[in-house]
Amino acid sequence: MNSSGRVLEKYGGRNVIQGVRLKTACRRWIYEGRKAAMKLLREDADLFFKLMWGLQFFVNQHLRIWPDVQSVKEYAALSTLGKAKVRDALWQNSKLINAYLELNPDHLSALEQEIVCKWQRFIADTFHIFRFLKKNTIFIGKQSQVYVVLGIQDNLADIFDARPLPIMVEAVLLPFKGQIVYDGLLKIYNVSFGSGIRSDLQKTYMVAKQNARIITKLEPEADVKASVERPGKVSQEWLAMVEEIAKASERMRGGPVVQGAALTLLRASAKVAEAALKRMDGEDLWQLTRLAQNALRRLQTVLQRVK
Fold this sequence. Notes:
Layout: E1 6-11, E2 14-21, E3 27-31, H1 42-63, H2 72-76, H3 80-92, H4 96-103, H5 110-118, E4 123-132, E5 137-140, E6 146-149, H6 156-160, E7 167-176, E8 179-182, E9 185-189, H7 195-210, E10 214-215, H8 233-250, H9 257-277, H10 282-305
Parallel strand pairs: 6-10
Antiparallel strand pairs: 1-2, 3-9, 4-5, 4-7, 5-6, 7-8, 7-9
Helix pairs in contact: 1-3, 8-9, 9-10
């Protein structure tokens, strides 16, 4: 990516800067290159681009966007901006995917046809790249959906280097062998975000994470992360300990004002912890939490009066 707004392509380890500016100064195109990390395996990345270039070449032939391009090899050699024009036409005419599969000009195997067929479930949207995790990247869509996305040949964190998060992009998300990738091309907006937007995105991410709504697959049979919390051995041990604390705290009453306020907070907090470990109804947990907040405020008031 080049700070002047020019297009930086990476293919086979070589960087080629196209001497063309985009019509919209605030956006830049970037195609995947070759590095390593939070991305597909090399053989899967090669398969992805084999299928994508074949499909896009078919679209190019059908719509005659670049009539002089006569083979998939010639198509793959097009500039990023050249491919971008065909790529946009593909997602605007996604019914061509069925036409491509019916004709099967590239003699795809059954598995390869299934992969391409699932691309009809694509999601084209404006996203915020919110966080780079150890194994993937978090995208948040306009409707607050949270997606786990892999790079193809490049680690997305490497593509954006030291650019501050969040990053606003236009992208097309695709299912690929039980994971989510993007179609290899991003439109990047050169905008920065204040603390309000960052706070909203953090809240969206945490709500999705807590409620097991982070989307890791675009296949209908498994489109939401199956990470619902289940009681474990540790939780049961903790529950027994918290129950003992709650029981003991009930006997701790009276004494000086500060001590009494602190013990009231202890009892209220123990009840919140006990309810959480027992996975009580949300409304009941909220009520206990409000009581704990009241106890905290009372203790703070008492401490402010101390001279």
